[in-house]
Write a structure and sequence with these properties.
- This protein is of the alpha+beta class and about 130 residues long.
- The chain has a single domain (about 5-125), classed as 60s Ribosomal Protein L30, Chain: A (2-Layer Sandwich).
- It has two helices and seven strands, in the order ββββαβαββ.
- It has helices at about 50-70, 90-100, and strands at about 5, 25, 30-35, 35, 75-85, 105-110, 120-125.
- α1 packs parallel to α2 (about 90-100).
- The longest helix has 18 residues, at about 50-70.
Length: about 130
C-alpha cells in the first residue's frame, strides 16, 4: 500500500474558507498540491486585483508548499490552471513563464467560475527527491 504524507506549511495560504483539504500530499515520489489562489500566506486575503499580481502570489504559495514537501518549482511536471476569464490568458502566461521556463511542465488551462475576486487558481504535481 502506498504511503502518503500530508504537507502543511505557513509559507502558503491555508485551506480556503476552512474547507477540509490538505495543502499537499506526498506519495510515491510525487507531491500533489491543492489548487492555490492568490491569497496571502498570512491569511490577510487576496493579493492584488490583477491576474498578474494574483498569479505571482499563487506561484509563491506553490513554491512554499513544494519546498515544504522537499521539492520545488523546478520539479513540477504538470500544472492545472483555472482562470475566471480566458481574456486574461496572455497576462497569465507572462507571469507563469517567469517561474516555470524554459523547460515548462505539461499544462491544462480552463476557464471556470471562481470565488469572488479570485482570478486564477493553479494546482501542481511535482517530483520529490
Amino acid at each position: 500500500m502506498a504511503q502518503k504524507t500530508v504537507i502543511s506549511t505557513d509559507q502558503a495560504a491555508g485551506p480556503f474558507g476552512g474547507a477540509p483539504y490538505s495543502q499537499a500530499i506526498v506519495s510515491n515520489g510525487f507531491v500533489f498540491t491543492a489548487g492555490q489562489i492568490g491569497a496571502a500566506a498570512d491569511g490577510s486575503g487576496l493579493v492584488g486585483d490583477s491576474v498578474e499580481e494574483q498569479t505571482e502570489q499563487v506561484i509563491a504559495n506553490l513554491k512554499g508548499i513544494l519546498e515544504a514537501a522537499g521539492s520545488g518549482l523546478d520539479h513540477v511536471v504538470k500544472t492545472t490552471c483555472f482562470l475566471s476569464d480566458l481574456a486574461n490568458f496572455g497576462a497569465f502566461n507572462e507571469a507563469y513563464r517567469r517561474h516555470f521556463g524554459p523547460d515548462f511542465p505539461a499544462r491544462s488551462t480552463f476557464g471556470v467560475s471562481l470565488p469572488a475576486g479570485v482570478l486564477v487558481e493553479v494546482e501542481a504535481i511535482a517530483t520529490v527527491d
